[in-house]
């Protein structure tokens, strides 16, 4: 500002110095007055333009405020932020123009002071002083208008900050609601995981029971094979003895018929005793064969009903009180109850498959919830730059849940593999038992 004043005074002094006569000085003063009037008019036009721009800015702020209270608050917030940035730029430009106008006013004031000092001895001093007062009045009016513009600009900026703070508060509220929804979903997923843990324990118990049942079936199969080998050997020996006894009996009868008329009484008695002993041996062999068939049927029954020797002992000891379900079904026979228990054991495998299907659905639901939670967190970060520590904690929870789901999946796959192996073993046992029964039937 000082440099401008010095240059202005130097220029004015150079222009006025060669004008020594009064007429030239008056003309110079008139020209300076006209130039000053033009500059004042330009400043007035600039002020009016600034007022018009301020009016437009107020209208835009009102529309931005109306839009910020709408339904789509997030979209309005983004558009309002863009408008706020544009208004800030416009305000800064208005302030720059205001500063330029103030600088021009100060330059004009200094210019007028220099003219007043140089024209103090002029005859038109009164007129120039009057014009100077008018110019100062206009400058005062401009100063007042600039003050009003400044105050309105500050009020506009304050209102914009309030709108922005209100929008940020709304965004934080939306973020908190999203966090609450995500927390509720995480709690539900944890409950599902706990239920899956309980189902996993039940499945492990069922697998363990199936393994124990498989071991019992292996032992029962081994005992059954030993008994069948022994019974087959006894049956072969009995058949050989029976054939030998029948042959001896036929020989004895033939011999008795041949010597019936010529043998003595002792020989007849001896032959009669031998025939009686052979007949008793045949009857004992027939009883042994019948007993072997009953034993074979006993083992077939145990195998079909999946009963162990301990179950048979319990049945013989407790009688009508075993199995416990028999107390609720007094009218059903024991065979019906045993078949019912066998069917229930088969139904457990179906329930296990249903549990596996539920686990798969729960895993897919957890994956969908995870995607939704990730989307909600990303939206929260974009809207209000959410808390980093909270996002880290949620990320750790998601990672832990993912590891837990993978572990449950591996355990379920292992249980399914064990169950498939048990089924394969049982099928092999049944095929071997069927082959053994077929061999026994063919030998009979």
Automatic annotation (TrEMBL):
Coiled coil: 33-152, 179-288
Biased composition (Basic and acidic residues): 393-424
Ranges of compositional bias, category Low complexity: 375-387
Region annotation (Disordered) ranges: 370-424
Keywords attached to this entry: Coiled coil
This protein's name: Uncharacterized protein
């Amino acid at each position: 500002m000082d440099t401008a004043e010095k240059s202005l005074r130097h220029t004015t002094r150079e222009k006025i110095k060669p004008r020594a006569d009064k007429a030239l000085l008056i003309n110079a003063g008139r020209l300076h007055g006209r130039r000053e009037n033009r500059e004042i008019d330009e400043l007035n036009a600039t002020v009016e333009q600034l007022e018009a721009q301020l009016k437009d800015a107020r209208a835009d702020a009102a529309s931005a405020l109306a839009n910020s209270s709408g339904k789509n608050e997030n979209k309005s917030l983004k558009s309002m932020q863009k408008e706020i940035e544009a208004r800030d730029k416009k305000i800064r430009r208005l302030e720059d123009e205001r500063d330029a106008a103030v600088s021009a006013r100060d330059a004009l004031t200094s210019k007028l002071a220099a003219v007043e000092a140089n024209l103090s001895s002029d005859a038109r001093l009164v007129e120039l002083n009057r014009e100077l007062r008018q110019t100062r009045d206009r400058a005062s009016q401009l100063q007042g208008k600039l003050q009003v513009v400044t105050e309105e600009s500050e009020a506009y900026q304050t209102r914009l900050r309030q709108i922005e703070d209100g929008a940020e508060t709304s965004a934080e509220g939306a973020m908190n609601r999203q966090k609450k929804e995500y927390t509720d979903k995480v709690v539900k997923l944890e409950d599902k995981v706990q239920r899956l843990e309980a189902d996993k324990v039940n499945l492990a118990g069922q697998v363990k029971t199936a393994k124990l049942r498989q071991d019992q079936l292996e032992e029962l199969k081994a005992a059954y094979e030993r008994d069948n080998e022994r019974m087959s050997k006894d049956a072969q020996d009995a058949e050989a003895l029976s054939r030998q006894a029948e042959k001896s009996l036929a020989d004895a009868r033939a011999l008795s018929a041949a010597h019936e008329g010529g043998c003595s009484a002792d020989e007849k008695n001896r032959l009669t005793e031998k025939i009686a002993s052979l007949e008793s041996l045949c009857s004992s062999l027939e009883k042994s064969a019948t007993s072997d068939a009953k034993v074979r049927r006993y083992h077939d029954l145990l195998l079909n009903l999946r009963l162990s020797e301990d179950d048979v002992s319990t049945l013989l000891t407790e009688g009508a009180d075993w199995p416990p379900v028999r107390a609720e079904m007094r009218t059903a026979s024991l065979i019906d109850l045993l078949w019912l228990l066998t069917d229930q054991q088969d139904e457990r495998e179906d329930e296990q498959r249903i549990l596996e299907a539920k686990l798969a659905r729960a895993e897919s639901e957890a994956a969908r919830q995870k995607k939704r939670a990730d989307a909600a967190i990303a939206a929260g970060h974009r809207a209000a730059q959410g808390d980093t520590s909270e996002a880290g904690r949620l990320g750790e929870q998601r990672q832990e849940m993912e590891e837990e789901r993978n572990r449950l999946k591996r355990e379920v796959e292992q249980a399914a593999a064990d169950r498939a192996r048990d089924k394969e073993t049982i099928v092999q046992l049944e095929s071997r038992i069927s082959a053994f029964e077929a061999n026994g039937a063919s030998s009979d």
